[in-house]
Design brief:
By secondary structure, this protein is of the alpha/beta class. It folds into two domains: 141 residues, Aspartate/ornithine carbamoyltransferase (Rossmann fold, 3-Layer(aba) Sandwich); 155 residues, Rossmann fold (3-Layer(aba) Sandwich), CATH 3.40.50. The chain is built from twelve helices and nine strands. The structure holds phosphoric acid mono(formamide)ester (CP) and norvaline.
Length: 310
Amino acid sequence: MKNFLYIRDIPLRDLKKIISAARKRKKKREGLSLLDPDKDNILKGKFLIQMFEKSSLRTRLSFYLAIKQLGGGTLTLRSDELHLSKKGESIGDTAKIISSFSDIFMFRTDSDKKMLEFKKNLKIPIINGLSPSSHPTQVLSDIFTIEEIKKKNISKLNISWIGDGKNNVVSSLIEASVKFSFKLNIGSPKNHQPGKKILDWLKKNKKNISIYKDPKKAIKNADVVFTDKVISMNDKVNKIKKIVEFKSYKVTKKLISYAKKDVIFLHCLPRGTEVSDEVFLSKNSKVWQQAKNRVDVQKSIILYCLGKLR
Ligand code: CP
Ligand code: NVA
C-alpha cells in the first residue's frame, strides 16, 4: 500500500511509472465513452471515498471519472456534513470508519497537519487532493501534459512560474523540479517568493531553480509558462494589497512575448486576474487539455496506491 501526499516523498522511478502507465492507459481508451470502464476493469468492486474541506470542480470530477473508468465506484463527502472536528468525532475514529468502508481515500484539506493525522490513522491509502502546502496530483498531471504536447522529456525544457511563489501548486512544482531535474524559473514579488522551509529543503537537494523579482527575466526563453490565482483558497491575507503587489506579474501578451515562440501556457484553474483573456484564450494556451488529462493521471495514481500499476 502506498500513499500519494507530497512529490518530494515519492521516488522518481515511481513518478515516472505513474506517467508512463497513464500514457498507455489513455491510448487504450480511444473510442470509449466517458463512463465506459477500461477493458481490463481492473478495479471492479473497489471503492474510493473523496472528502473535501474546500471547493473543487476539476479534482472532484476527475477522481469520479478515474475510479469509474477503472471499474470501481466512489462517494464524495463534505467534511462539514460529518461529525468530525468541532462536532465531536475524532480524526482517529473517522479514519477507522473510512478504512473499513472503502479501499482508498482522497482528501482536500485546509491543514497539512490534518492530512498527516488521517494518514496515521487510516489502514488504506490516502491521496492529497490539495493542501495548503501541496497540490501533487495537479503537478504530476501537468508534467504528463507538458510531455504529451512537447513530445520531450521535461528535463529538456525550461519551465517558468509567474505569480505567487509560496502557494501549494508552486511548492509541488519546486519539488517536481528537483525530482525530474528540470529548469524552473520563478518570478514573484519580493514578499511572495518561496518560503524558508522549502528553500532549506532545496539547499539539501540538487537544484536547478532561479528566483527573480523581474517577471521578464523569469519568463525569458520559457518552453512552458505557469501561473495561478494570486489569492489561493487558504490565503488569509489583505487581498486588495496582494492583488496590487502582483499587478506587473499578470501574464499578458507582452510579458509572454519574452518566452519562446512555441511556448505553452498552463493554469490549474480556476483563474482570476493573473492572466489576460488574450493569453488564456490563445492557441498557446493548453489549459483545457491540461484539465482533462487529470482523469488519466488520477487513474494511474489510484493504481499506484493500490499496488496495481503495471
Ligand atoms: N485545479 C484544481 O484542482 O481545480 P479544482 O479546485 O476545481 O479541483
Ligand atoms: N492555489 C490554488 C489552487 C486551486 C486549485 C488554491 O489553493 O486555491
